[in-house]
Amino acid sequence: MTQRKLLFAGPAGQLEGVLHLPQGAPQAVAVIAHPLPTLGGTMDNKVVTTLAKTFAELGFAALRFNFRSVGASAGEFDDGDGETQDALAAARQVRDEFGHLPLILAGFSFGGYVQARAAQQLHPQPHKLVLVAPATGRYPMPHVAHDTLLLHGELDEVIPLADVLDWARPQHLPVVVLPEAGHFFHGRLNQLKQLVLHEFHGCRL
């Protein structure tokens, strides 16, 4: 697996990203969005990098990127609206480079909210949505596809599990709960990785 830094065009100027490439030809592509920029969220967040490396291990090309105003990405924080456009720009970037391979959108915390919104606006639709501790209760999360992989910590101190269940319940959306895990999955990143590997292992893309 290799990594390649890149800059690509976003709606508010350049966006900074890191592309993780598998050893062989990619079987799919994934775009991973990071937590809230105003609280220090970046593409180097441990959950985000764990997801990117896991997707590469599965044989996917995986792009993690900085939202506007973070790192070398231009622009100013836009409370989710502009960041959704950034996520769409990242999806276009990988589709331009890799053609129409199956596309997975993944996001952690605020990034989960952004990717849930981006999924509604993408055409064609993403193949799969992976949400890790999405910011339900804090942002107006839209409904998502019934096969979305939703992972949450039982003891999440930022986004209470009860808020996620309240959002998921009307959709009959399953929630994979990691017992005793907090919001940042300290000491549980390998378990997070295994759950994602299991979800996609043998999956027909």
CATH superfamily: Alpha/Beta hydrolase fold, catalytic domain
Radius of gyration: 15 Å
Q: What is the number of beta strands?
A: 8
- Distance from first to last alpha carbon: 20 Å
CATH class category label: Alpha Beta
- Number of DSSP helical runs: 5
For this structure, the CATH topology is Rossmann fold
Key terms:
globular; 24% strand; single chain; alpha/beta; 205 residues; 8 strands; Rossmann fold; 30% helix; 5 helices
Structure in words:
This protein is of the alpha/beta class. It has one domain: Alpha/Beta hydrolase fold, catalytic domain (Rossmann fold, 3-Layer(aba) Sandwich), CATH 3.40.50. Helix content is 30%, strand content 24%. It contains five helices and eight strands, in the order E-E-E-H-E-H-E-H-E-E-H-E-H. An eight-stranded mixed beta sheet has the order 1-2-4-3-5-6-7-8, with helices on both faces. Strand 5, helix 3 and strand 6 (128-132) form a beta-alpha-beta unit. It is globular. The model has no long low-confidence stretch (mean pLDDT 96).
